[in-house]
Amino acid sequence: MGKPVPIRAVETGQVSFVPYMASEQDVLDVLRGIKDPESQTDIVALGLVRDLTIRGGDVSFTLAFGAQPAQTKVLIHSMANKLVGGLPGVSRVNAKMGGAAAPHAHGGGGHAHAQAAPPAGAPPQRPADMIPEVKQTIAVSSGKGGVGKSTVAVNLALALHGTGASVGLIDADVYGPDLPLMLGTKGRPGMFDNRIIPVEAHGLRVMSMGLLVADKQPLVWRGPMIHTFIQQMLRDVLWGPLDYLVFDMPPGTGDAQLSLSQVIPLSGVVMVTTPQDVALLDVRRAIAMFQQLNVPMLGVVENMSYFVAPDTGTRYTIFGEGGGQKVADEYGVPLLGQLPLDPDTRKGGDEGTPIMVRRPDSAQAAAFREIARRVIERLGATATLRPLPTIS
Ligand SMILES: Nc1ncnc2c1ncn2[C@@H]1O[C@H](COP(=O)(O)OP(=O)(O)OP(=O)(O)O)[C@@H](O)[C@H]1O
Ligand SMILES: [Mg+2]
C-alpha cells in the first residue's frame, strides 16, 4: 500500500494547512489488503470494487459480489468499511453491497460498469431453487417492536421441534439480531462446501446476523442489502431437510417483510401483538400488508395478555383486554393463543434458555405447544404453493 501523505502544508508566507483528501489510489491500495478467502485474490484484482467516488471526506463504492457465501460478503464489507474509514482524510464511508460481479473478472480498475443490487422487483427465485428441502416457512412478525416476536419465534420453533419435526430458525431482524442471546449460542457458524452451516441450539438449526458480526458493530442496512441478505440466508446456508423454517422478523412493514414475501412464497405469518389499542393500530397495518402480498395469515398471538400475581393469584390485565381477539375477528383469522406476562419467560430470553427448555412443564410452555398445534393445523388448511406476489 502506498503511504498516504498525512497533511500537506502549503507555504504562503505563513504556514497553512489544506485538509488532506484521500486519493483513489489510497482507497484502492487499502482495499487490496482484503483477500477473498476462497480464491486468495485481493478484492480489487477480483473486480469487486466498483463505482469508487471520493467527495471531500466522503468515500463511496460498491462491492459487486458474485457467488461468495454470505459470511464472506459480510466480512469483506465490514473490513472494507473499517480499512477505508481508517484512512487519513476519510470521514465517511458508504460501501454498498451490490450483486453479481463477473465472478473472476481480473484486472485492477475498479471502474467497471455500475452493478446495482437486485432491486425489490427482480424476478424472484422459486423456493425449489433456494430451499428445496424446506417444507413450510413461517414468519413471526408484528406491527410494533418489543411485543415479543423473538420470544414467540424461539418458543414456537422449539414447540414445533417438540412434535418431532426438524426446525430451522432465521433471525431476519437485521437491525437487532437477538436470537444468539436468546438461545445462548456461542461461536461462529462453520463452512462446508462453500456454504454456511447453521449453528445448533436446543435442537434447532439457527442463523443470525448476530453470529457473523462482532457484538457491538452497528448494523446499517439499506433496502437492497436486506433483500440480498435474505436471499443469502436461504441460498448460502446449508439448511438440509427441514419440516419448518421460522423467521423472526424485524417489527413493522419494512424491507425485510417485502423481500421475504417476494423471495419465497411464505407458508404463512404469525402476527404477534399486545392487547392495547396503540399496538392494534400497527398490527392492522402489518396484517393488511401481508394480505396485499398474498401471504396467508396463520393467526394472531396476543402476548403479555395478563399477569397473575404469584402470591394472591389475582389476574391483572396490565395492557388492557381483548385486543388480540378483536383484531383476529376483524380479519377473520384465528387467535392462536394468549400468553401471560411471566418472569420466567423473560429470564429464559435473557439467559439463553427459552421457557420451552427451562420449564417445559410450565403453563407458558403448554401455551406455546398449543400455539404450535394450531399453527400446524392452519398450515394444513392453507395451500403452500401459491403464485409469488409482484411488487411494483
Ligand atoms: N410473555 C412474556 N412475559 C415476560 N416477558 C416477556 C414476554 N414476552 C416477551 N418478554 C420479554 O420482553 C422483551 C421483548 O421481547 P422480544 O425481544 O421477544 O420482543 P420483540 O418483539 O422481538 O422485540 P424487537 O422488536 O426489539 O425485536 C424481552 O426481554 C422478552 O424476554
Ligand atoms: Mg426481536
Cα radius of gyration in angstroms? 24 Å
Give the helix proportion (percent range): 25-40%
- Describe the global form: elongated
With helices defined by DSSP (H or I, 4 residues minimum), what is the helix count? Answer: 12
Mean pLDDT: 81
* Overall domain count: 2
CATH structural architecture of the largest domain: 3-Layer(aba) Sandwich
Fourth-level CATH superfamily of the largest domain: P-loop containing nucleotide triphosphate hydrolases
Percent strand: 15-25%
Q: Could you please say which CATH topology of the largest domain applies here?
A: Rossmann fold
The ligands found in this model are:
adenosine-5'-triphosphate, magnesium ion
* CATH level-1 class of the largest domain: Alpha Beta
* Strand numbers in spatial order across the main sheet: 10-11-7-12-6-13-14-17
Walk me through the structure.
With 392 residues, the chain is an alpha/beta fold. It has twelve helices and 17 strands. It folds into two domains: 19-98, Fe-S cluster assembly (FSCA) (GMP Synthetase, Chain A, domain 3, 2-Layer Sandwich), CATH 3.30.300.130; 127-381, Rossmann fold (3-Layer(aba) Sandwich). It has helices at 24-31, 70-85, 127-130, 149-162, 179-183, 223-235, 255-263, 277-292, 323-331, 343-351, 355-358, 363-381; strands spanning 8-12, 14-18, 49-55, 58-64, 92-98, 134-142, 167-171, 190-192, 195-197, 199-201, 204-208, 242-248, 268-273, 297-303, 307-308, 315-316, 335-339. The strands form five sheets. An eight-stranded mixed beta sheet has the order 10-11-7-12-6-13-14-17, sandwiched between helices. Strands 3-4-5 form a three-stranded mixed beta sheet. Helix 6 (223-235) packs across helix 7. The longest helix is centred in the C-terminal third of the chain and has 19 residues, at 363-381. It is elongated and about 70 Å long. Mean pLDDT is 81; it is low at 1-18, 101-128 and 384-388. Bound molecules: adenosine-5'-triphosphate and magnesium ion. Adenosine-5'-triphosphate binds at residues 142, 145-151, 173, 176, 178, 251, 303-304, 339, 341-342, 345-346, 349.
